[in-house]
Design a protein that fits this description.
2 copies of one chain form a homodimer. Chain A is α/β, with parallel strands linked by helices. Chain A folds into 3 domains: 7-57, 434 Repressor (Amino-terminal Domain) (Orthogonal Bundle), CATH 1.10.260; 63-161 and 292-319, Response regulator (Rossmann fold, 3-Layer(aba) Sandwich), CATH 3.40.50.2300; 163-291 and 323-329, Response regulator (Rossmann fold), CATH 3.40.50. In chain A, 46% of the residues lie in helices and 16% in strands. The first copy, chain A, has 13 helices and 12 strands. Chain A has helices at 7-14, 18-26, 33-46, 52-55, 74-89, 103-115, 131-140, 163-177, 193-209, 224-237, 248-260, 292-307, 327-331, and strands at 63-68, 93-98, 120-123, 144-147, 158-161, 182-186, 214-218, 242-245, 268-273, 286-289, 317-319, 322-324. A 6-stranded parallel sheet of chain A has the order 2-1-3-4-5-11, with helices on both faces. In chain A, strand 6 (182-186), helix 9 (193-209) and strand 7 form a beta-alpha-beta unit. In chain A, helix 1 crosses helix 2 and helix 8 (163-177) runs parallel beside helix 9 (193-209). The N and C termini of chain A lie far apart (71 Å). In chain A, 52% of the residues are buried. The interface between A and B is large, with 61 and 61 residues. Chain A binds a DNA duplex (16 and 16 nucleotides) through residues 4, 6-8, 16-23, 25-26, 28-32, 35, 50-59.
Chain lengths: 333, 333
DNA sequence: TTGTACGCGTTATCAT
DNA sequence: ATGATAACGCGTACAA
């Protein structure tokens, strides 16, 4: 195995200084077309590969940190695909890590990313994240954006969708279009900010409706299995007129459980996020679409703008969710 | 903003040399307990953070490259979660990138990862990958494992599931348990290796059955929408006795389309991968389970073993798929 | 335990 | 307008 080809080798081969070779590669400096071509030819023949690590020792690196609670949840998959595509298209690479929604893991991963000198950070904070996280990031002093979830009480840059509005849309549809008089909000971690905000939107819709609607709020994990379990319990204990699920996976599980219990179509179900299978399930799932991919792209672009110096600070962005009405909210009855 | 705290600062503050400070951090050298504690105290008070980038200039770095075709496809999400968890638990970080299943993107990303000096590479090659990819990786000379897909004709280390066996299981079930006499294999890119291998398994099962079974093979994208379109066409053109879908998303789409066409339950559908929603769809999806998460963990562990020097070379691994029988293959009729 | 060369590209400064 | 010199960034590892 031959030694690594370095910039010195290229320079020597092209009969030029290391500096000039560097200028050719980065496109930074003033170099005549003639020498530029000589250098590029040398790079080609020697098979030189740029060493990003060495370069990052001087200038700010081209690596970005991305933290999500669960890399394999469909919605975060969408978010990540947006983040990743935007970064790699701009020549940056994303160090993506998953906290499994645990604070200790998150603290550990933040530290690891810091040790890896990432140029920026996009983070979907784990449930229960508090000022410890915000302080750690602020003392670190790296461009950061909170994605899809924010930390309660903090005013850090945030890219997400309007959860209050999402809850409102779902509840409003249930009470106004379907005259629901009892609604259950199902799923999500007890103190998750998305959950709390959506419930606020739900309450607002109920208040506006003027009618007397009973609201029950239940937590669960955000999986299909948890949805099935919850659906069984609801079927056994008496169904509400409508169920707003914390995400589509839960909703699909609930629908299945009700089907098994012989209650198919006997209540209205609304999911959240509008992931792929939502439109194809039976019944097709009414869902609040949040377009995770665009969220990811937006966050990534915001960070890139700051890194490049185009913007002085990361800008927050609140996307408008849309209610996609399908069969599961009652239109199939 | 104060200057970065470096190892020199720590050393000075602890009244010791840079080398000793380094030894304390890495745990490598023999340092007396007394000085170790002094150094650790200094690290604490100064708020020193290790600089992985600088360190990687000398020793091999702790960054690993991971390439998948689509970061947001459920199956790859499972794979990635296994890869990521295993690496970060061992102190490594994964640079994860998505080729969108395009060869030009893949070539570009391989180069970028190379520039980032990753210590190892796990790659799910894009459809159509050939020896250009294998050569590029070999000349690079970094520990590599092909994950879930391999390159036709190459003998590189490979961690995946036995696709031939998977195809066999699905077809065998359709012909033996359900007496199917016409089967359609639906989905996947025309020349994808998984597709070809599974078809081989299907043919083997048909041959073993002794009976005369007609096999049709159709390609499609691997999305719910593509499944819906394909299902419509099948419904219009005459249904086979059984359909083996390239993945669960397609299967869910097909089932939905047949439902819409009034053909619910009139053929048998088998999916592939057994992702979350499979068990909850209506009808519940029979599927070939491949456990992407374990595949990811296995690949990551293989790479870690080689990096650490415990193993001389990456070892291949073929996992056994399992057929999970549910309603969609005819048990609900 | 420590001194010090090393790994590799960047960039401010100097020379033509 | 072009190109070169040399200091810099930060931890690692070997010789002393």
């Amino acid at each position: 195995m031959g030694r690594r080809v370095t910039l010195i080798d290229v320079a020597r081969h092209a009969g030029v200084s290391r500096t000039t070779a560097s200028y050719v590669i980065t496109g930074t400096g003033r170099v005549s077309t003639a020498t530029r071509e000589r250098v590029q030819a040398s790079i080609e023949t020697l098979g030189y590969v740029y060493n990003e690590g060495a370069a990052a020792l001087r200038r700010t690196g081209r690596t970005i940190g991305v933290i999500v609670p669960n890399i394999d949840r469909p919605f975060f998959g969408e978010v990540l695909s947006g983040v990743e595509a935007t970064f790699t298209d701009s020549g940056y690479m994303a160090l993506m890590v998953s906290t499994r929604d645990r604070l200790d893991q998150q603290a550990r991963l933040v530290r690891m990313l810091r040790e890896h000198q990432v140029a920026a950070l996009a983070i979907v904070p784990a449930t229960g994240s508090n000022h410890d996280l915000v302080d750690a990031i602020r003392s670190w002093d790296v461009p950061t954006v909170f994605l899809s979830r924010y930390v309660a009480g903090s005013t850090e840059p945030y890219v997400g969708s309007d959860e209050v509005r999402g809850g409102y849309l779902a509840a409003d549809h249930l009470v106004r279009a379907h005259q629901c008089r009892s609604i259950t909000y199902l799923g999500g971690p007890k103190h998750g900010v998305a959950r709390i905000d959506r419930l606020e939107g739900v309450l607002r819709a109920l208040a506006e409706s003027g009618s007397d609607v009973k609201l029950v709020d239940l937590t669960s994990e955000s999986t299909v299995e948890a949805g099935i379990r919850a659906g069984r319990e609801l079927a056994a204990g008496g169904l509400p007129d409508g169920i707003i699920c914390h995400n589509d996976s839960i909703a699909i599980g609930v629908a299945r459980a009700l089907f098994d219990a012989g209650h198919a179509g006997s209540t209205r179900i609304i999911g959240y996020d509008d992931i792929g299978p939502a439109r194809a399930s039976v019944p097709a799932l009414t869902s609040v679409a949040t377009s995770g991919r665009i969220l990811g792209e937006t966050a990534a672009r915001a960070l890139l703008a700051v890194i490049s110096g185009a913007e002085p600070a990361v800008r927050s962005h609140l996307a408008e969710p849309r209610l996609i009405v399908r069969e599961s909210c009652g239109d199939h009855i």
